[in-house]
Amino acid sequence: MQVIVKVKKIGGSFMARIPSDAVKELNLKENDSIHLEMKKPRKTYLGIYKGIGQFTEDDRFDKI
Fold first, then answer.
1. Cα-Cα end-to-end distance for the chain
2. Where are the domains of the chain?
3. Distance of alpha carbon 21 from alpha carbon 1, whole angstroms
4. Residue 13: in which H helix or E strand, if any?
């Protein structure tokens, strides 16, 4: 199972909360050990220009 979560600082440590659906699917209990593989998600920049609208056939670069 793969989920993306936000990290929160608590005291001098960071905490990542596990969503309840993941807890149910993995049948996790308090004090269980889990394996975490961490990396920052890449930004896609899709939707960065809101209001620009959908691309049309006239927007194709290879039509020149």
1. 46
2. 1-30
3. 11
4. strand 13-16
